[in-house]
Specification:
This protein is an all-alpha fold. The protein is 89% helix and 0% strand. The longest helix is centred in the middle third of the chain and has 82 residues.
Length: 92
Amino acid sequence: MDTGVIVILVIAALLVLVIALVAGRRAKERQLEGRREEAQELRSDAEAQAYRADERASIAEEQAEQARRERADAEEQARRADELDPDVERDR
């Protein structure tokens, strides 16, 4: 085999190897970018879910406070009814 042919074959093999390495790196980078995008989407969904949970917790706290007030009002009305009712014995 001629030396020039061998040099050309070695150079061609090296070029194929470099092209394969570059293509592999690009594929890996695309894969990483896809994972980054998926992670960002998951973070965004988690943030929205946390916001909705905070909103529901706030509403639940407001409703619990309203229920406490209504309970206190009901107890006050029951106490007043007991005061008015002549059949209820009271401590004197």
